[in-house]
């Protein structure tokens, strides 16, 4: 049963929109809707991937964040050089907790920050010389890196530096791949364009490196695309695929390497977890190398089982049996987890506001725990994401695109969910409002959440947040109702 | 003119335009034979695009240029 009926939900949206000036109100109205499963085409009722209204507190990031932080950051043996002023590099370093196996600063560089530290004179006279010098220094200090990428920050595009030329020249000199990525922060409306630019850069500069030189792959080779190994997610997914008999050739990009990218064209099937950030390269590989791709969902046992069966349906009977074996093997453990946590979480209401994927992917996991998603929204999703979202959510679920700080607060105040799942920027607002909260970008310093092993952690974390005793201590003693104070005095 | 990609879905052709993230089924295609392929294509969302008629691509998906004639963007 949903919390609101359709009229109430529509009325709530109208009420929230009331505070905006006329023009902003008209604009924001297009981004808010009440879910209706009868609608198959989202664009008729929701607008997405548009510029945020000036003056509101949007939660979005920039193209540089999408490229440096999301796609390029987790590759462990590619040094991502933040080319530009120092701040962007420093604040995008390692905060996402994409784990890797390796020795930091020797052969892995996920949590090391490289920046060209642009100064006024570099803006005036151009920074190409500085970049060339930086690449020489990096090569001298960290000779075991396998490749470099140049992540441009805003000034690079504004002053028109030719990072492509420098990259080509230096790549020839040091004999490594150097990828210039034109991900200046001002491009596009959100980090989503950064994902696209990164995908295009991988397509143009890396993926064809071994064309014609690749050994033919085995019959069960697959690649994991769009899993960033946050808290070990990709590892929890990988063991399931390997257990059912598949051979995982590459991880994009959590704990991934450049050799894995170059070897991806020989796989038989691309498995796409984060559709929003990696569908571009999957489509490219489908066209160029004829590799089909498949979206899967490793959140919650029922979705995992469905995904494993769907993946297996692309292979022969050994893999199909393997999938059933894996599902049967983990079933007792999953039943035990659900038996333990479901009674504590049954009927609790959740509101989600995450990036471009999780508002729809985690719904199954919450439903396995008996929880209900009453509101969901994306920061930077596109229309095709909403097409995929609407049939996963219940009717009359509130959907909000690029929600502003004010809208989120107001929706939470009125709907009173038992749990909010969003990012670090929203976390403390909701804590102060007395609403249990979990970060769904970086798993609140926990994880993994993918796979069967991840579900155990997920269920425990949600229980810890929702049923934490601290929420009962929220009222100050002098704000308690008078009678209880009187009783206390009597005692 | 815009770059589009045509791929084979479960039910006929699927239209995809990366620039605008439009993904939709192709309801009808003017010419659909190995020798002559393309022409006016109608999408599920009501959009109409035009592809220069050509010999059918040997393999799908296939990227090509298309012109928007009418309909939603």
UniProtKB/TrEMBL annotation, chain A:
It catalyses: N2 + 8 reduced [2Fe-2S]-[ferredoxin] + 16 ATP + 16 H2O = H2 + 8 oxidized [2Fe-2S]-[ferredoxin] + 2 NH4(+) + 16 ADP + 16 phosphate + 6 H(+). Its EC number is 1.18.6.1. Residues 62-466 form the Nitrogenase/oxidoreductase component domain. Pfam families: Oxidored_nitro. Keywords: ATP-binding, Iron, Iron-sulfur, Metal-binding, Molybdenum, Nitrogen fixation, Nucleotide-binding, Oxidoreductase. One of its GO terms (molecular function) is nitrogenase activity. It is an enzyme of class 1 (oxidoreductase). Belongs to the NifD/NifK/NifE/NifN family. Tetramer of two alpha and two beta chains. Forms complex with the iron protein (nitrogenase component 2). This is Nitrogenase protein alpha chain.
TrEMBL record, chain B:
It comes from Propionivibrio dicarboxylicus. This is Nitrogen fixation protein NifT. It holds the Pfam family NifT. GO terms for biological process: nitrogen fixation.
């Amino acid at each position: 049963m949903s919390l609101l009926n359709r009229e109430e939900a529509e009325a709530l949206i109208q009420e929230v929109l009331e505070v905006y000036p006329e023009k902003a109100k008209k604009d924001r109205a297009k981004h808010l809707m009440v879910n209706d499963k009868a609608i198959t085409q989202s664009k008729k009722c929701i607008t997405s991937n548009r510029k945020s209204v000036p003056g509101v507190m949007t939660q979005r990031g920039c193209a540089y964040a999408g490229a440096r932080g999301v796609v390029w950051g987790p590759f462990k043996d590619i040094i991502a050089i933040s080319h530009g002023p120092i701040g962007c590099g420093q604040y995008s370093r390692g905060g996402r907790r994409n784990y890797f196996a390796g020795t930091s600063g020797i052969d892995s560089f996920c949590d090391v920050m490289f920046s060209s530290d642009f100064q006024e004179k570099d803006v005036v006279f151009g920074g190409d010389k500085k970049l060339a010098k930086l690449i020489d220094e990096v090569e001298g200090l960290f000779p075991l890196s396998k490749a470099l990428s140049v992540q441009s920050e805003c000034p690079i595009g504004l002053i028109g530096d030719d990072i492509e030329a420098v990259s080509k020249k230096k790549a020839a000199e040091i004999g490594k791949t150097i990828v210039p990525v034109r991900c200046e922060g001002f491009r596009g409306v959100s980090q989503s364009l950064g994902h696209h630019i990164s995908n295009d850069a991988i397509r143009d500069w890396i993926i064809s490196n071994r064309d014609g030189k690749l050994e033919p792959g085995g019959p069960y080779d697959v690649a994991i695309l769009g899993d960033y190994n946050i808290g070990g997610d990709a590892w929890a997914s990988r063991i399931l695929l390997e257990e059912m008999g598949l051979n995982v050739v590459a991880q994009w990009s959590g704990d991934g390497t450049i050799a894995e990218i170059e070897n991806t064209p020989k796989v038989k099937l691309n498995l796409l977890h984060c559709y929003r950030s990696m569908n571009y390269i999957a489509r490219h590989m489908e066209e160029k190398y004829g590799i089909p791709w498949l979206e899967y969902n490793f959140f919650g046992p029922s979705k995992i089982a469905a995904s494993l069966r769907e993946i297996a349906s692309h292979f022969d009977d050994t893999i199909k049996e393997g999938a059933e074996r894996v599902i049967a093997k983990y079933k007792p453990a999953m039943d035990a987890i659900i038996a333990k946590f479901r009674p504590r979480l049954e009927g609790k209401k959740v509101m989600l506001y995450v990036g471009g994927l999780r508002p729809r992917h985690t719904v199954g996991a919450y439903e396995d725990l008996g929880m209900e998603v009453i509101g969901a929204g994306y920061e930077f999703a596109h229309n095709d994401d909403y097409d995929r979202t609407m049939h996963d959510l219940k009717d009359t679920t509130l959907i909000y695109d690029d929600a502003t700080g004010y809208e989120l607060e107001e929706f939470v105040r009125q709907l009173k969910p038992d749990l909010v799942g969003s990012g670090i920027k929203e976390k403390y607002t909701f804590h102060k409002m007395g609403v249990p909260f979990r970060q769904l970008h970086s798993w609140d310093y926990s994880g993994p959440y993918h796979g069967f092993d991840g579900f155990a952690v997920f269920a425990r974390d949600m229980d810890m947040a929702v049923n934490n005793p601290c929420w009962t201590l929220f009222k100050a003693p002098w704000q308690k109702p008078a009678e209880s104070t009187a009783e206390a005095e009597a005692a | 003119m815009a770059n589009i990609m045509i791929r084979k879905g479960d039910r006929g052709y699927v239209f995809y335009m990366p620039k605008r993230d439009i993904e939709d089924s192709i309801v009808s295609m003017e010419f659909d034979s190995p020798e002559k392929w393309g022409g006016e294509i109608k999408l599920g969302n009501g959009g109409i695009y035009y592809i220069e008629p050509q010999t059918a691509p040997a393999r799908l998906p296939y990227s090509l240029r298309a012109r928007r004639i009418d309909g939603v963007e």
